[in-house]
Amino acid sequence: MINSITADRIANSILQRRKKYNNFVLVEGSHDRLFLLKFKHENTQIEITFGWEKLIKVIEILKQNGYENILGLVDLDFREFISDAVTEDDEIIITDVHDINILCLEDSFSTIFDNYCSEEKVEKFKESNNCECIKEYTYQILKPLSYLKFLNKKESLHLTFKSNGNKKNNFDYSKFIDKNNYSLIDNLKLIETVTNFSRSKTTQTILKNEEILEKLVTLLESEKFPKDKITNGHDFGEAIILGLKKVLGTKELDSETFLKECILSYDSSDFLKTNIYNKIHSIQKKKKTEFLKL
């Protein structure tokens, strides 16, 4: 269904409604839209493009049709480490960190986590694991997965990490994160999970698990990427709910709910400190319009 929504279709829809709204902001997904709904001007409409490639194409089509009251918000992803065709200009802004979920988690994680965790279990876990901060610990659990995703993009390993359009068919994080003690089982188990998931989704040859492991270990030893720029927000959500189910809490919770609550609790005062806000504010002045209400 999502694949059938083309850039032309999205652009035509915007052109038909341009008299109703002063401005349009294009975003990659539903969490980006939820984030900007908190801060947008009442005459601004937020449109989901289902990926950055279509977002860029929609902007190109709109500009060709003479419509320029548009902005596109694109995830940083690995762009700080691997260059691609996306550059910031008067229409495109790139997030400060890996994605909007990580931006919000950095500031609102504790508020949401404290609501679902067991204080007694958390203190016991911290003592047993010599851990001061659950958020930082979760980043560490996810470090091999984050680096594997980077490696996949950099070296075209043909690995797949999610099913297009069907979240229920994504791989099972509990296959490499032990839900009984909230820890990474090992890097080989992580790689086995990803390659088994990937093989049915590509006709390309995938390296042997041991070869990928060697590459991953080398990367982990040689590179030190900032955690908020290498970690995917969806991965963080999937990991933390595994911890909350048994080791850190007692409640059944899904990643989508946790991440959305982090977005909704994200404060405008934090947004005002971001490069995203400063860039949008600058573009507003240049275009003589208002995308934000702040």
- How many separate domains? 2
Q: Decide which structural class fits the backbone.
A: alpha/beta
Round the mean pLDDT to the nearest integer and report it: 95
Helix content range of the residues, please?
A: 40-55%
Low-confidence stretches: none
Short synopsis of the structure:
The protein has about 290 residues and is α/β, with parallel strands linked by helices. The chain has 13 helices and 6 strands. The chain folds into 2 domains: about 1-95 and about 275-285; about 100-265, no CATH class.
Describe the structure.
The structure is a single chain. With 294 residues, the protein is α/β, with parallel strands linked by helices. The protein folds into two domains: 109 residues; 168 residues, no CATH class. A hairpin with a 4-residue loop joins β5 and β6. The longest helix has 22 residues. It is globular and about 60 Å long. The mean pLDDT is 95.
Keywords:
294 residues; 2 domains; two-stranded antiparallel ribbon
Architecture blueprint of SSEs:
Elements: H1 7-16, E1 23-27, H2 30-37, E2 44-48, H3 52-64, E3 70-74, E4 92-94, H4 100-116, H5 119-129, H6 134-155, E5 177-178, E6 183-184, H7 187-199, H8 209-222, H9 227-230, H10 233-245, H11 255-265, H12 268-271, H13 275-287
Parallel strand pairs: 1-2, 1-3, 3-4
Antiparallel strand pairs: 5-6
Helix pairs in contact: 1-3, 4-10, 4-11, 6-8, 6-10, 7-8, 10-11
